Amino acid sequence: MSGQGAGGTPGTRLRRLIQEVVKFGAVGGSGLLVNLLVFNLVRHVTDLQVVRASVLATVVSIISNYIGFRYFAYRDRDKSGRTRELTLFLVFSAIGLVIENGVLYTATYGFGWDGPLQSNVFKFIGIGVATLFRFWSYRSWVFKALVPAAEAPPGREAPVKAQPDRVG
């Protein structure tokens, strides 16, 4: 072992983190566009209230983002526990939905800032705050990195598929 800790040299870890942030940003950027497009479309063609339209748009973007994260940004991560992964993704996404739409709710109903421009500004701010939470939670809990056993610190070895007990 090189003595550099899990993941190699500090420069290598920094490059990996930057690549992860770029991929996360690409998926998140497309999710942002989906979110804002659906939000404004729903606001324009229906009579749904602002926060309800926002929640609907957030749900559509969550679906879009899962596909992007699983098959692009985190395609190299552990795929052995898809049910666990999807469950955690939905739980953390729901928390992000509450954060995102809590900002919009507060602006709309707490301060009366409900014009189209104001709604979009506070929707965008809410998405930004929720994105920080989502980045941390997705990389820490949902799309866990596979760490080669040779580089893993004690207790952080790569997942090993369980073998059935043999009766002999």
Features:
mainly alpha; 4 helices; disordered C terminus
Task: Give the arrangement of secondary structure elements.
Layout: H1 10-45, H2 50-73, H3 82-111, H4 116-142
Helix pairs in contact: 1-2, 1-4, 2-3, 3-4
Model description:
The protein has helices spanning about 10-45, 50-75, 80-110, 115-140. The radius of gyration is 20 Å and the shape is elongated. Residues about 155-168 have low confidence and may be disordered. The chain has about 170 residues and is an all-alpha fold. The two termini are about 40 Å apart. The chain has one domain (about 10-140). Helix content is about 70%, strand content about 0%. The protein has four helices and no strands. It holds the Pfam family GtrA_DPMS_TM.
